[in-house]
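Question: I have long wanted to understand how a fold can be written as C-alpha cells. Here is the record:
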Amino acid sequence: MYVPLKPTFEGYVESAIDARKLLESCLVGQHMHAPRSPLNHKLNDLIKIGPIFIYEQRSLGIAKWKDGMTWAELEPDEEGFLIFKLREPDCELHGLVKKSCTMPYKGIKHSLVSYYIEDDVEKGLLITISRQEELQAVEPREEFVISMEVEEDPYDPAWRATEEGAGS
C-alpha cells in the first residue's frame, strides 16, 4: 500500500531544543512521524517548503534515511547535528543543506532529517521551531539527548563520496 510522504513539520531546526520540541510533539500525537524515506518521491517539491522529518528507525526498518541525492558531509556542529551540503552541481536546488540527528528515547532511536536552502534561512523565510506558535508551549522531556550517530552504508552514494573524498 502506498503511503504518501508528508513532512512532520515545515520550518527550520535551529537548535537542539528545536529538535527536542518537535520530537516531543510527535510522541504526544501533535505531529506525526514520517511513514517512509523519500527515495521514490519528488524531493525537489518537498525541499521548497523546508521539510523536517522525524522517523522511528525500528518501526520503519531503516537505520539510515535515503533520499537518492549525493551529499558532502561537513563537520558536526556544536550541538551534535550532522550537516550535509548537496553535491549535485546540475540540481536546481542551489544551497541545499541536510541537517540530521538521532535522539534515543527509552531504547528507541528517533531520527530527525531537515532540508533547507541556506538563503531561505538567511532571509528569514523559514521560521524556527521555537518561534512556531503551536510549539512554543511544548516542553521536551529531559531524557532527550541528541546523539550524533553516523550509520555507514557502503552502498549509499553519499557515503561513498564522503569516504572516498570525491570532489573535495
